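Subject: Interface between my chains keeps coming out wrong

I've been trying for a while to get a sensible model of this assembly. When I model each chain on its own everything looks fine, but I need the whole thing in one frame so I can look at the contacts. Pasting all components below, labels as-is. Any help appreciated, I'm running out of ideas.
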Amino acid sequence: MLARLLLGVLMMLGAAAATAADLPALPKAKGEACIASAEVMRRDHPDMLKHQRDETLRLGIRGAKASLKECVACHATQAADGHAVPVNDPGQFCQSCHAYAAVKPDCFECHATTPKTTIKEASR
Amino acid sequence: MINRRHLLLASGAILIAAPAAAREAGKPATAAQRWGLLIDTGKCGAECTICVEACKAEMGLAGHDRPRTDAQYIRKVNVKDPATGAGHSVPVMCQHCAKPACVDVCPTGASMKRADGIVLVDRHICIGCRYCMMACPYKARSFAHEEQTGQQPHLPRGKGTVEGCTLCVHRIDEGRLPACAEACAAKAKGAMLFGDLNDPKSEIAQRVAREATTRIRADLGLEPAMRYQGI
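Reply #2:
Try treating it as a single job with all components included. I did that and got this:
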């Protein structure tokens, strides 16, 4: 009897959790495949980038497997007018998940949020 | 065996010597190299700002029309000898010292010298205290006062951190010239010679060994990698 009651409570809890928040909907990436499986990337991408950033900046090691520049190049979407949409805009690849997980990375206070664009000197 | 250089020379192309081959992926910078510039002020026009513009475009430095606080990695300084009236125009940027004052005073280790002598700011740990800006005798560093947008992917920069000339590490690591030297050679008189001061075969090392060169504020003993001629 008690077990059945507990099971019922648990099932109700599970149902409530499922409707608490919708899972983030991610825009599709440009590339073929990521550098690791989605499970690994979801959990470990902060450590990958943190490890790589010190090696690149302080030791000058280039061409690392994990690279924020490559992440952005692959995951930034294009608006209808052809402009790249920043990856940290609401609903975009980075922001949709970070908003869901309630974390605020500060990478993009400094790092570019769109792939490289050529700036014309004449326009300055 | 005809190599690429002979082919270029045979084709009559103007050879802007590539400083070195790109470093292999996964290999760190080594102390075998010491990158530097030799600047001939005789070829540097007082009104010419091609190197400054090229740097701003390369690094994505958009100003706010506030010259005192806007970021500048390279600037033109016009100097005049009061005794003779002789004037010179000198491009001044981070001098990438062997004994950098900014690294000495930095409380966090953000100001750092890479193995190949390039002095950088690690903005990941910079707290924006600006000690380095006070310590630097060359006024080479700027502070980002505003939130930044539209950065170049190869040069992250953000509010509350100090920044300065990186000698275009992102280009050097690919085996290309710094943007200022490239633009000066292409659009101006080629006053800037970039190369490896440690390589006896490089043009810059040979000229520095053969000709008289000056270093700004050599009396401070910081041993800059930037050398000037004609001042």
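Reply #3:
Confirming on my end. The interface with chain A takes residues 23-29, 53-54, 56-57, 60, 62, 112, 114-116, 120, 122-124, 147-148, 150-154, 156-159, 161, 169, 173-174 of chain B (CB under 8 Å).
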